[in-house]
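Data availability (excerpt). All sequences and predicted token strings are deposited with the supplementary files. A representative entry, 15-hydroxyprostaglandin dehydrogenase [NAD(+)], is shown inline so that the format can be inspected without opening the archive.
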Amino acid sequence: MRKDRAGKGGTIINISAMAALVRIPFVPIYSATKSAVLHFSNSLGMEPTYSRTGVRVLTVCFGFTDTTILHSNKFGLFEPEQKKFLMEHLKEARMQKVDSAARGMLEVFKKGESASTWLIDADKPAEDITSSVNEAYKILSRHFTDA
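Structure token line:
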């Protein structure tokens, strides 16, 4: 779909999760993969790549969504002893409905700029959190740029 390769451009929406934004000690592998999706998508959607390809890349971070995975006991925990803590965390989590998540995705598709990050959580409308993500990277990069 790349314009620089005879395509017409398009949109990619990559799915991350709140686990990419917060530290959750009992699901490190899940958190790491969702962090990778966030960073990869943001990097791929930035300039000059977007102007050259015409492919808009958006990232959605879902909060806890009431799907079968949360009820299946198939978490693949790094340490099985952590399951008790995860289950306690899930009991207190604000669970959103699947239709709320789907409505949020449509909003992201309509409004999202390339390299943007969106949060869809707790049955609220999709929220563009790009400025917060950019600020976090700016803070982290100080250690590199000040050297």
